[in-house]
Amino acid sequence: MARHLAPSSGSLHRLLASCHYPPTSQAPPPRPLLLPKTRSAAMQLPRRGRRDVVAAAAASAPSPSSPGTEVAVWGKVSAVLFDMDGVLCNSEEPSRQAGVDVFAEMGVEVAVDDFVPFMGTGEANFLGGVARAKGVKDFNPESAKKRFFEIYLDKYAKPNSGIGFPGALELILECKNSGLKVAVASSADRIKVDANLAAAGLSVFLFDAIVSADAFEKLKPAPDIFLAASKSLGVDTNECIVIEDALAGVQAANAAEMRCIAVTTTLEEIALRQGSPSFIRKNIGDISINDILYGGSNARHNEGAGSTENSSSVGNALSESLNGATAAGHSDTKGFPISKNKGLLGSRREILRYGSLGIALSCLFVAVRNWKAMQFASPKGLLNFLMGGNSSVFARNEVVMCVLQENLCHQEFNK
């Protein structure tokens, strides 16, 4: 059999000639075997479905902690510590004006801007720093602070005088509704804290704790006040968010290892950045609950997010690995599109539910309206009644009764 299959030398010559090879040339070199190019791990599509594709894309996407990624992890938040002057209350300018009044009674001329470097450090340093800068001799911080409070409370911080910043109450309530603890942590004495909160229309009962400067020797930028507030709330320092307006307050938050949101109600942004706050907003009205819980647009929260931590980078890798395929189907991975059929199925359920209820009510209405006839109606008669048929069971019953009565009459007559 092999003999019949083997081509003769003449046949081989004709085959080579038909392929345009000269008779004396050697056989053509074998063509290389072209194998498909291997794909990267992110480009390979496993047979088990899209879930594995998502996992492969996630593995190839950069993690948030790797170099070159700009999104930081925000972390868990359990409490918010509010500074008072310049954050909850628009009281920095009145405080500086009261300080000018105190020095005016001493016969020393000062300007409101002289107090700016000492804001947020407590009244003793607030007044004493200006006294040292002006070379005031025999300055008594305690008596000066007492007179300061008298002037401030009588002239600038009357109850419900409207010194609260717009949005302060709303943010406090949003924090409480989100399950966060809230506290006032101020370098001011308690007498001023209570007066400012009353002037701003903020009840002390809104707060889970109020920490003032009375019991502390070291005030901001030392972390003591923030650490005491954290301990009073029973919350770890790494779960506390501080909202501050003063550079000393931002520095104190960093010293306490707490995240800090700074507001530019007192100092310019360039001055606040010296303390390295987490981010900066214009005032408390510009701070949203998402800024507190998730770090706004500057960071991303990693608690309870599951696989959404790498959602943006995974999405990019996934779109490349699918090579233009649509992502409209159902995905069990959190952060990816869910099937739109869910809403359609919900609509169908509602249609069936309320449609069945409507039919039942219609049947009840017909039965009540024709309750006398329904007492004697058979299923066939009811069907004729609903379908409008002429051969009603009621008519038949009447004919039958008439025939029976006639037969009975004939029987009686025959007797």
From TrEMBL:
Cofactor(s) required, per the database record: Mg(2+)
Report the Gene3D superfamilies cross-referenced here.
Answer: HAD superfamily/HAD-like, Putative phosphatase, domain 2
Pfam families linked = HAD_2 (PF13419)
* GO molecular-function terms, A-Z: catalytic activity; metal ion binding
Magnesium among keywords? yes
**Which keywords does the record carry?**
Carbohydrate metabolism, Magnesium, Metal-binding
Q: Which InterPro entries match?
A: Beta-PGM-like, HAD-like_sf, HAD-SF_hydro_IA, HAD_2, HAD_sf, PGP-like_dom2
Is the Glycoprotein keyword given for this protein?
A: no
Q: What PANTHER family does the entry give?
A: 6-PHOSPHOGLUCONATE PHOSPHATASE, HEXITOL PHOSPHATASE B
> What is the designated name of this protein?
Chloroplast protein HCF243
Tell me the organism: Zea mays (Maize)
User: Corresponding gene?
Assistant: LOC100280294
